[in-house]
Design a protein that fits this description.
The protein has 161 residues and is mainly α. It is built from three helices and no strands. The chain has a domain of 59 residues. Helix 1 runs parallel beside helix 2 and helix 2 packs across helix 3.
Length: 161
């Protein structure tokens, strides 16, 4: 019977002891590499989560900033609109004020006419009081008051001469 060498397989086709040790070393190295990779993947995942949180926080801050900018823009638009309304109302009031205070204004001229008519009506009333009092020289009392008032009223209703 032939003696077998240490590096020879017991059964033809089986690996030798050196091959098994080499495979065991390679397997151990692969396991170590696998653990390092798993550790690196775990660290990378933790880093990615941190980055996602930071990205989410920055995104939220940007959204808040955008909302604040939009609110300021809307507020400015409302203020500008109200300012425009006030300017239009002020111009309208100013135009009316000028129209009523300048001699060339329609309001001023109408006021002059109304004032002239009022002064004329006062003058006519005084004239009619004098005329009517002469019609009833020796009368007095409530009956005279009614007659006198009717005389002045009737004359005021008639168109001026």
């Amino acid at each position: 019977m032939a003696t077998r060498r240490v590096n020879e397989p017991a059964v033809p086709g089986d690996p030798t002891a050196a091959q098994i040790q080499s495979l065991a070393r390679n397997l151990n190295e692969l396991i170590e590499e696998s653990e390092r990779l798993r550790h690196d993947v775990k660290i990378a995942e933790q880093q990615r989560r941190k980055e996602n949180i930071v990205t989410l926080g920055v995104g939220a801050l940007m959204c808040l900033f955008l909302i604040a900018v939009l609110l300021v823009a809307i507020q400015n638009n409302l203020i500008a609109s109200r300012t425009n309304q006030i300017a239009v109302e002020t111009k309208r009031s100013s135009d009316q004020l000028f129209d009523c205070t300048l001699p060339t204004g329609k309001c001023f001229q109408n006021g002059q006419k109304r004032t002239g008519k009022a002064v004329g009506d006062i003058g006519r009333t005084q004239l009619y009081i004098v005329e009517c009092s002469r019609l009833y020289p020796d009368q007095s009392g409530p009956a005279f008051d009614r007659l006198f008032e009717k005389c002045v009223t009737d004359r005021l209703k008639a168109p001026p001469k």
